[in-house]
Amino acid sequence: MRAFDLPAVIGLFLKTGEARFVTVTGLNGDRVTLAIDRKTGTYPRAAIEPLWNGYYTVVWRPPKRVDRLISPGVEGPGVLWLRERLDQLDGRKTQVAKPRHYDEALRERVIAFQHRHALAPDGMIGPETLLYPDEPWKAERRGEEPAIAVL
Hints:
Elements: E1 8-13, E2 19-28, E3 31-36, E4 39-44, H1 45-48, E5 52-58, H2 77-90, H3 104-116, H4 127-130, H5 138-144, E6 149-150
Parallel strand pairs: 2-6
Antiparallel strand pairs: 1-2, 1-5, 2-3, 3-4
């Protein structure tokens, strides 16, 4: 959860048997900041971990120009955005006749990125690839979404 650097919702199972969903808004060493019923509090991680089953949901929205799964054959602003991000990552500017079209060359670049980061090499840009912690679009995402406060 720390690697994503985003708020997350977790389920806690209290000693009374009651299940509560809370939002993790900060991680600081052995302390966890939680939002519970519109109130925020910081607790020792050791007190929270026994109540948590390990599952979490990251609160996230894709970048503005990505309005659907980006896959081979797709055309649109999301494909142009993807080319720009990969060019930025690779330190080069690629010239193609149709920059808004997801062609075979772009597919090969995406698969290479996915291989380098141990992601499923399917050539598609979906949530798994977009949420990869060290992806080239993290800075852009941070400008659009509140990040978790890792102090």
